[in-house]
Design a protein that fits this description.
Strand order of the largest sheet: 2-1-6-5
Number of strands: 8
Oligomer: single chain
Strand content: 15-25%
Distance between the termini: 39 Å
Shape: globular
CATH architecture of the largest domain: Roll
């Protein structure tokens, strides 16, 4: 940890600016600051922590909203005085409900707002990571009544049985030629496959790497 921090150049107030970027879309989400404690907590937990200059205290992004930023990469600029974090953003990055804090654009001498509420954005492949991360979280923080925890409790054989059942449902849906039915059943299958991946310790990136080799 000390080796990592030794490369950081904190300012006279003990702070360093942090640019946080969506790891999937590469969109800049926000600019904030870290002190040494925030940096340590970010490394330790894998969730981005910042230091609030207005409140003079450490804060975990998403602590009250649930809109956590899951660290995927931490980069340092050439001067060592600015950090770039690539993160998986759960929900909105901005307190206004926008997916990014940079939602105002200069247009004809005015600031035009582009509202992109995180809850209304068009789903993309990053939803797979969101679901996967929830499944992983259930292994660390079991939730009463959770179907995912039920599957983990029952074990590998139960999970494999469900994968088999959902595969058969996909086949039936395809034979029925119903787009809605296929969509529903494939979603069920993909969820159960991700439970299987987590149970066996396989990351989505492992799958991506294998698929990339098949192009």
């Amino acid at each position: 940890m000390n080796n990592l921090k030794s490369a950081l150049k904190f300012d006279e107030k003990g702070l360093i600016p942090v640019v946080t970027q969506d790891v999937n879309t590469k969109e800049v989400l926000m600019l904030a600051y870290m002190n040494e404690e925030a940096f340590d907590k970010t490394i330790e937990t894998g969730k981005v922590h910042y230091y609030s200059r207005s409140r003079s205290k450490l804060w975990l992004k998403g602590e009250t909203s649930g809109h956590f930023q899951l660290v995927k990469a931490i980069k340092l600029d050439c001067d060592g005085d600015t950090i770039l974090i690539e993160a998986e953003q759960l929900g909105a990055a901005c307190h206004t409900g926008n997916k990014t804090c940079f939602y105002r654009t200069k247009l004809n001498g005015e600031w035009a707002e582009t509202r992109e509420d995180a809850d209304e954005e068009k789903p993309t492949a990053k939803i797979l990571h969101e679901v996967y991360d929830v499944i992983v979280d259930r292994t660390v923080h079991p939730k009463e009544g959770s179907y995912t925890n039920y599957l983990f409790t029952k074990g590998l054989d139960k999970i494999l049985k469900k994968v088999g059942e959902e595969t058969a449902e996909v086949i039936i849906a395809a034979k029925n030629k119903s787009k809605e039915e296929i969509t529903y059943e494939v979603s069920d299958l993909m969820y159960h496959l991700m439970v299987l991946l987590v149970e066996r310790g396989v990351a989505l990136e492992d799958i991506y790497g294998e698929l990339k080799g098949r192009r």
